[in-house]
Amino acid sequence: MRRAVCPGSFDPVTLGHLDIVERASKIYDEVTVAVLINKKKSSLFTVEERMALLADVTAVYGNVKVDSFHGLLVDYCQAHGIPVIVKGLRAISDFDYELQMAQMNHGLAGVETMFMTTNPLYSFLSSSLVKEVATYGGDVSKLVPERVLTSLAERLAAP
Ligand code: PNS
After folding, report:
1. Is pTM, for the whole model, over 0.90?
2. DSSP the chain
3. Nearest CA to ligand 1 atom 4
């Protein structure tokens, strides 16, 4: 079975992430979306909430699992028999850091990284920008799945 992982913070998942996950699900037999547990980074949604949103919006693909991990991504990959990391590249500005991580991950454990160029519709898109725009009342309805839009509205309305 050909397995791949799409790792990230997914706080929250955007249509840019989903585009990559969907395309990966057509190439690999099983794709795991792995949410990084990072206690040092403050987040809008808990890891459990992010996983529930991801499970909801990826259910349609049929071969996508959602999980969380902490520590090194390559340790997660090795523990789960996953030889490939799939990442989206939005712009050349992503490339330097992604190249470093890909080379480090390959050097550490022989785990390969496959890059997909993002859909140009989402080349400017990030979870941070979505949160910022939504916080100030901007329209993010074309940038996140419907389910995430509802959760964002609820979370940002909370006192
Ligand atoms: O969505 P993000 O926050 O840009 O995702 C970054 C992520 C989770 C892919 C990256 O930080 C990561 O792989 N972290 C796990 C820790 C690790 O393996 N670090 C060494 C990378 S070479």
Report:
1. yes
2. --EEEEEE--TT--HHHHHHHHHHHHHSSEEEEEEE--TTS--SS-HHHHHHHHHHHHGGGSSEEEEEE-S-HHHHHHHTT--EEEEEE-SHHHHHHHHHHHHHHHHHH--EEEEEEPPGGGTT--HHHHHHHHHTT---TTTS-HHHHHHHHHHHH--
3. 8
